[in-house]
Amino acid sequence: MKQHPLCTDIEHGPTILDLPIDSGLKHEWAELQTRRHFLGRAGKVMGWAALASLGSGEALMGLARESQQRSAPLPSPETLRLPNFAPKAQRAIYLFMSGGPPQMDLFDYKPKLAALFDTDMPDSVRGAQRLTGMSSGQSRFPIAPSHWGFKQYGKQGAWISDLLPYTGKMADDIAIIRSTNTDAINHEPAIMLMNTGNMNTGKPCLGSWLSYGLGSMNNNLPTFMVMMTKKNEEENNQPTSSRLWSSGFLSSEHAGVSLRSAGDPVLYLNNPQGVDSAVRRKMLDAVSEINRQTYEELGDPETHSRIAQYEMAYRMQTSVPELTDLSKEPKTTWDLYGPEARVPGTFAYNCLMARRMAERGVRFTQIYKRGWDVHTHAVGLLPMLCGETDRGAYALVTDLKQRGLLDDTLVVWSGEFGRTVYSQGGITKEDYGRDHHPRCFTTWMAGGGTKPGITFGETDDFSYNVVKDSVPVRDFNATILHCLGIDHNKLTFKAQGLDQKLTGTTPAKVVDELLL
Amino acid sequence: MLVSAIVFLLLALPWTFAPDGQTHASWQQFLGRFHPLAVHLPIGLLLLVPVLEIGGRIRPSLREAAGFVLGCAAICSIGAVVLGILLAHGGGFAKEAVRGHMWAGLILTIAVITCTLLRSSWITGQSSFLYPVVLLAVLALTAWTGHQGGALTYGKTYLTEFAPTFIKQLGPHKTYPSVDPVSVYVTRIQPILDSNCITCHSGAKVKGGLQLDTYAHLMDGGSSDEDIVASHPEKSLLFTRITLPTDHPKLMPSEGKPPLTPKDIAWIRAWIQQGASPSSTTLVGMELKPAHTDDPIPQVGDYSGLTSQIEQIESTLGIKLDRVSARAADGLVLRTIGVSQKFSDADLAKLEPFAPYIVDAELGHTRVTDNSFAILAKMSHLRAIHLEETPIDGRNLKQLTSLSELRYLNLSSTKVTKQALNDITPLKTLQHIYTYNTPAAPVPVP
């Protein structure tokens, strides 16, 4: 980022002096710089010096110390007065279908499209929308009806694709939202918007906001945990990164802790050979003491986070092995989740882990499943993707329900956007591809105070535009926060001169129709 | 003759320009607002008089000056009083609020004039004690009047707000009847204040000297005193300020925050109208349906006095007693998951002092046994009990039948039997009971 020449903050990155320009110019610049710095600083220094000589120096130092101490306590659930009201959900589990699942192949049933196979989509539907670079060059936009049939499930008679037979079985436990829509058309901004309420990086994500606002229920495990599902090489795996569970401008204590999908779930958690628990404890005490001294000297709140993280890691040495030990799971568990759940890193395994985390008081668990980015060969890829995720999601909701945890656990299933009804890169009887589509996509929620067994929102005949009950991302997130007892306008943090919040500056509203 | 005319005119002022709570011509306000400024001149001069009189014993020239200064003080006092009455009249002050200060100021001015007259006879040695006595009275009256004026501007608590406790205890403080946790005030009025007012009117921010976080603070009012006048919403400043036109600069909530809804205003009006009581549980003309019709949350009592004990037990046992929500009356959640491996009946027994405030007991995965039901039964406001994966078999379940608010009971993965479950059939409020993976579980349909 280019720095304003008048800005006196410490500079990072290349400066004028690093540029390949005439050394005379550099010299002149340096002189100007130092003079400006001198004058800028001198004003403040003189003021302080005068003040110091007025009162006694000691008093002034005391004042400085006091102001430092006063600024030290960071906002906590106690001072934030959260939850704002008695919550229905104590915790949430977020199944993130990264890449953008095609809504018209899974939930948004459009039987009329079958007759329009390979015909051009009317221009009026798309309007003036700008497409991605991947399909904007296409000469025509041939309609690709879903390759799969749909059936009605549950008392609500929800239309669900034959790709998702297990999801169909829990149709009466979930609230299907067909009218979710976003502002972003590409993965990175869209996935950031879903997670942080803003397309730009640097904002805290949902889990961090919850950790900051509601705090921990179990000090032995992180408040916010993330699990990546093992990559399937045959699928189109667009990248994800730790930005998605970053705490942004919130203290880094609130960042998500991600479990690895293979090997040790957390690296370097075990004591090295020859170091026993007592030695480790002694070492940590010493490190903490040094950190505390640093904090007293510099007053940087990140030092506190560092201390907290060391302590958390120490407690996780016992709590994580207990969490990941599946030996005591009864046979019914494996019947429900399927044999895949025995393999660490699969979606089913992660769903089982999410249930175990819910039982152990983890506030927010997020599971990422990549590969939904079906630009080409959707007919081949979707059965694979649904096969990997359908049963796990069903097992998780059903398991939570039978164990009495669904009453106070919110489960969310969502991608970052939907996919186009027209085929990307040609269409045949056997196959098609679908491009990114922000104007509508389908998500679902279950438990935690949401209304079970409903389908909400409608799209037009092409599953292209929302025609009824639009749920933009900010309303989606406001509703999630509401389930957890939070008024989205009240969970704020002052950064960059703004009371920042998850739902951003555009007014958002809780979707009451989704709530019990 | 001239003097009595001036005194007569001064005394006529309160009737000509009576403060009636309305704002008047802007020139009156313009001049009137100089009152707080101008008033310090006669005060300074009056304080100088005794200094000069005493100093005059050593240097007689000072005593000569005293007469002149006193004369100036008399003229300035008259000016200050006139400005003050213009302010009271023009600035829309309520009669009750300024009455004391106004009359004190008038009497003070007349006393200063009297003082000036008496001094001439005192100088000649005719009345030896009258002048000093009246002068002392003038000084005392100055202090009293000045204090009243200050209280009008800065609020009654301005001086004492940050005083050490031992000083505070000296002063009179109003006592209010105690607040009933199920009263209209707690269930309807305070929530409105909580969600609309307290960001600026509680804790560190106390705008206008007004705090709205508790009943006592609400009734104490702020700088302008009568914040709530029981039975008179129209005289209550709080009510006036929330019902001003939307473009009025004094409308509350201020700074672009959304105004209160007509419904909220109706509640506040009805509550003040019917006595602004902290304990009344009904309001004539208002339907007392709770905000969330589907799920009324029974309120627990006030546990604020137990805060330090709560913190202590949390650290000794490693448990958490979290507030359900920002509203304390929603109760506490007991979380034991962090220490579930060692949490036992004995630990649960230690929580007895907090029993009436716990609404959700999360005891899953702990070592508590059937003996714990005796203590759970004392948690009279329990709405949810988690006992999944505990060694209980349910033999004492019938002890829970006294829990009239219990809605959720989780007995999954325990040894609870069907017979044991029959014991809690009298619990009509129970909506969810989970017996997954127990002998009592229904045989799953294949």
Instruction: Quote the beta fraction of chain A.
Output: 5-15%
Oligomer: heterodimer
Q: Quick one: overall form of chain A?
A: globular
The most extensive interface between chains reads: A-B, 25 and 26 residues
Query: What amount of the residues of chain B lies in strands?
Result: 5-15%
Name of the CATH first level of the largest domain in chain A: Alpha Beta
Sheet having the most strands of chain B: 6 strands, mixed
Quantity of strands of chain B, as a count: 8
Low confidence ranges of chain B: 289-293
SSE arrangement:
The complex is a heterodimer of chains A (516) and B (446).
Chain A: H1 23-54, H2 57-71, H3 77-80, E1 91-97, H4 103-106, H5 123-126, E2 150-153, E3 158-161, H6 165-169, E4 174-181, H7 187-196, H8 206-214, E5 224-228, E6 257-259, H9 277-298, H10 301-324, H11 331-337, H12 347-359, E7 364-369, H13 378-402, E8 409-414, E9 418-423, E10 434-437, E11 441-446, E12 454-456, E13 458-459, E14 466-468, E15 471-472, H14 473-483, E16 493-495, E17 498-500
Parallel strand pairs in A: 1-7, 1-8, 4-12, 4-15, 5-6, 5-7
Antiparallel strand pairs in A: 2-3, 4-11, 8-11, 9-10, 13-14, 16-17
Helix pairs in contact in A: 9-10, 12-13
Chain B: H1 2-16, H2 26-32, H3 35-38, H4 40-55, H5 60-90, H6 95-123, H7 130-154, H8 165-170, H9 184-196, E1 201-202, E2 205-206, H10 215-220, H11 237-242, H12 262-273, H13 307-317, E3 320-323, E4 332-335, H14 345-349, E5 358-362, H15 373-378, E6 384-386, E7 408-410, H16 418-422, E8 432-434
Parallel strand pairs in B: 4-5, 5-6, 6-7, 7-8
Antiparallel strand pairs in B: 1-2, 3-4
Helix pairs in contact in B: 1-6, 2-5, 4-5, 4-7, 5-6, 6-7, 9-12
